[in-house]
Amino acid sequence: MKQAFLQLHLAILLASCSGIFGNLISLDPVLITGYRMLLASVMLLLLLVIKYGRIVVDKSNRHILWLGVLLAFHWVFFYGSIKYANVSVGVVCFCLSGFFTALISPLVNRKRISWVELLLSSLTLAGILLIFHFDASFRTGIVLGIISSLLFALYATLNERVNQSGQVIKTTALQMVGGTLAMGLLLPFYRASKSSLSLLPTSEDFVFLFLLALGCTVCMCLLLNRAQKVISAFTVSLSFNLEPVYSILLAVLLFDEDKMLGTAFYMGLALIVLSLVLQMVYQKFSSQ
Predict the structure, then answer these.
(1) Which ranges does the record mark as transmembrane (predicted)?
(2) What is d(CA 224, CA 253) in angstroms, rounded to the nearest whole number?
(3) 242-264 pLDDT, tens per residue?
(4) How far is the C-alpha of 216 from the C-alpha of 231, rounded, in Å?
């Protein structure tokens, strides 16, 4: 059990590095997403071939490819939020996905809306609105971050049923392929609107992209897959609330982002942390 929890928290730490690498890589958000998914899909497909000898894909897997497209656009807006603001703002906006999930999940799964969950997660919305109102320099980044969190909420809701199959590695590989194809089709139109767009990464960018794909996607997926064999899905979901905390701490340590953030940000962050804590407490008691 101790090893499983260690694997889980290492997976969370790797996931929290996604925004850090996004800030370090000089490429455009579309290119960051495209290269990340391309490299990750190659790694995961090779892993599947080595492990099983072949990869079986049929018509029932088409919806998994579409989920990869949704994930890709989530990442595009997430990295866009970081580029226009900073890692801390991008990650804080990502916390809003809980609020959107509380609205989207009941509609998709045809269940009643949990007004308690909606109320608790609305504290996150209040925190982001507070930052948006007082920190005008972050507004574009916040808008992109809100769109990113909405897309992730939709992705997470639809992906919940797919993960129940237990084939996490194959599912992730197919989603990476779907996202890679989407970014490849988008790129010619995107480049036409940005003639000065640099397509090829520098050697430094490639190292960061490789680490992003290997660590934040492949290794994170493998660690999470192993941890979920021992730890309940509820505990995993609850533990991932630590991801934004890890990301902000890393951003402060690596980029001195605490010097860029004003009082409004910390007031908004306090509301968001309060929302996460209350949601964790509520989920813990409601599951008993």
Answers:
(1) 35-52, 64-82, 88-108, 115-132, 138-156, 168-186, 206-224, 231-255, 261-282
(2) 26
(3) 788 888 889 888 988 877 777 77
(4) 20
pLDDT of residue 283: 66
Domain ranges of the chain: 2-286
Contacting residues for 235 by C-beta, under 8 A, at least 6 apart = 8
Contact (Cβ atoms closer than 8 angstroms) between residue 78 and residue 19: yes
The encoded tokens of residue 93 equal: 């906006």
Please check the confidence at residue 208 and state whether its pLDDT lies above 90: yes
Q: Closest by alpha carbon to 92, among 245, 212, 216, 260?
A: 245
Describe the chain by its helix, strand, coil percentages, rounded to 5. Answer: 85, 0, 15
CB proximity list for 173: less than 8 A, separation 6 or greater: 41, 44, 45, 47, 48, 55
Longest CA pairwise span in the chain (Å): 57
Q: How far apart are the first and last CA of the chain?
A: 21
Tens-place pLDDT, residues 78-129: 999 999 988 988 888 888 887 888 888 888 877 787 777 777 777 777 877 7
| Both tokens assigned to 2 | 């101790």
Q: How many CB atoms lie within 10 A of CB 284?
A: 12
Tell me if 79 sits within 8 A of 22, measured CB to CB.
yes
- The pLDDT tens digits of the residues spanning 4-26 come to 788 888 988 998 999 999 999 99
The conformational region for residue 149 under phi > 0 = left, psi -120 to 50 = alpha, else beta, is alpha
